[in-house]
User: Fold this.
Amino acid sequence: MASTIRVRAQANGPTTDVQALIQHPMDSGFVKDSDGNLVPPHYIETVTFEHAGKIVLTSNWGPAVSKDPYTKFSFKGGAKGDVLNVTWVDNLGKTDTVAAKIA
Amino acid sequence: MHAGSSESHDLTRRATLRLLGLLGVVGMAGTALADAPGWPVEAFKQKTEADALKQLYGKPFEVSDKVTLEVPEIAENGAVVPVSVSTTLEGVTSISILVPENPFTLAASYKMSDATMPAIGCRLKMAKTSNVIALVEAGGKIYAASKEVKVTLGGCGG
Amino acid sequence: MSLRRVSRRLAIAALIFSALGGAAPAPADGLATAAADQKAFQAFFKDRFPNLPVAEFGNGPYAVNAEMRKQWEDIMQFPPYDFALDEGKTAFETPFANGKSYADCFANGGIGVRQTYPTFDTKTGEVVTLDLAINRCRIANGEKPLPYQTGMMASITAYMAETSRDKPFDIKIPDDPRAIAAYEAGKEYFYTRRGQLNFACASCHVTSAGQRMRGDILAPAMGILAAFPIYRSDWGSMGTIDRRFTSCSSQMRSEPLPPQDPAYRNVEYFLSFMSNGVPITGPGTRP
Assistant:
């Protein structure tokens, strides 16, 4: 099954520019379904971006982060071909991870 | 925020949940009701600016023009509001974003390493017109910038 | 409960017909009428938005509002339809159980053809949208048809649209009275007021194009279908032209028709023909 995590990591001289899109409902728990019942909260809590053994970004999210959540950031270091590991864990304990290649 | 629930994407939601179910659970047995390790549980429970700030950093902030917050004046849709925070401050260890008019004030909080550029782009949900407050922790102090984002009713009924 | 159709020509329809000398089009002049309609329609929008390149008309509200455009450009850095696009490509390239595939049903293997839909099928005497063509292909090859509006149908049409990105709409009306009738029926639907709010499509997308309706900016009708299928923030998922037609009908407090209803197909035919020359901008994102 395809990963829920899409990463575009681009080496740009001394820095690496990263954009990530994750497929996830990010249900807040405030929205009702078509039967009028509240859809229970189901959202990513943490996302970690790790390069060469170092966590370069930890995202701590609440339900106010939009569905199919997006992240953009940059870090010093990283070269073409390097691996950037991205992992998320949600409030139901579900998780996914991807080893993205820096372009 | 548009009242999108009347057009509820039940099928998509169910399909997504099925997919996530297939991904399984890591390191947890049975019902996984514990939050992710390191996730600031208390901060995400708070309903005011002051309480969120206290739980996150435990110190007051000063408004700084060295913190740049980019948000739309009028959100095209409260469900997806692009927010960018950047700063010229050095020694940034954390950036957090508060939306006081949301049911829970803290939207997102990022921890940076010493190799990370002090800038973040994200997309947030806003329940209604509210200030968006960017907090930057740098050199042990908290700096802030704030801008109002108008969230209106969509035009198409909804 | 049947639709109470209060058939009233709006000012723009009067404009178009007056451009033709004020006479109602005779069937024999159907193609000439359609061509003249298209000219007048595009002239109206080019006049309303004088600095807008034709290519921009496929960007709807983002072409006519700078603040919304900025948010769109931000989101387009990494469009949320990315997942659907991948899913659609995989599905498009996967053979059916009988060994054939979508490529066997379309010109050029289905690549770079979206801008030619809808077509008019002279064999069955009906307008064929891309969505309908996809399901006809499935049925012809022993597969179950896909539900319309979202899901896999949106993913496959997203992929096919992507292969047509930047190609201008190139809709043809054959010299066949049934095709001309379908075009005319689509035109009539577009300009007819309906439902509790008594709005016609034209009320918002012609008369008030570029203006606000509460928090929304109304897209001009010219090019309005170019970005489909779309990931709409309001839905948090993908939607086809059907999804937008049915949901707009509901939101205008008018009885929504079933997806691919002939009336919807005819209005899609009309709108697409009116937009000839506007490049495909789909798949797209919208508020």
Notes: Chain A has one domain: 5-101. Strands of chain A lie at 5-12, 15-22, 44-51, 54-61, 70-76, 83-90, 95-101. The mean pLDDT of chain A is 96.
